[in-house]
Amino acid sequence: MSDTRFSFPQDTLRGLAARVLDLARAGGATAAETEVSEGFGQTVSVRKGEVETLEYNKDKGVSLTVYIGQRRGHASTSDFSEDALRRTVDKALVIARYTAEDDCAGLADAELLARDVPDLDLYHPWDLPVEGAIELARACEAAALGVDGRINNSEGATVSTQESQFIYANSLGFSGGYPTSRHSISCAVIAEEAGTMQRDYWYDTARAAGDMAAADTVGRRAGERTVRRLNARKLGTRQCPVLFEAPIASGLIASFVSAVSGGHLYRKSSFLLDSLGSRVFPAFMQIQERPFLPRGLASAAFDHEGVATHDRDVVKNGVVQGYFLGSYSARKLGMKSTGNAGGNHNLIIPSTGEDFEGLLRKMGTGLLVTELLGHGMNMVTGDYSRGAAGFWVEDGQIAYPVEEITVAGNLKDMFLGIQAIGTDVEVRGSRRVGSILIDRMTVAGE
Question: Is 397 helix (H, G, I), strand (E, B) or coil?
Answer without folding.
Answer: strand
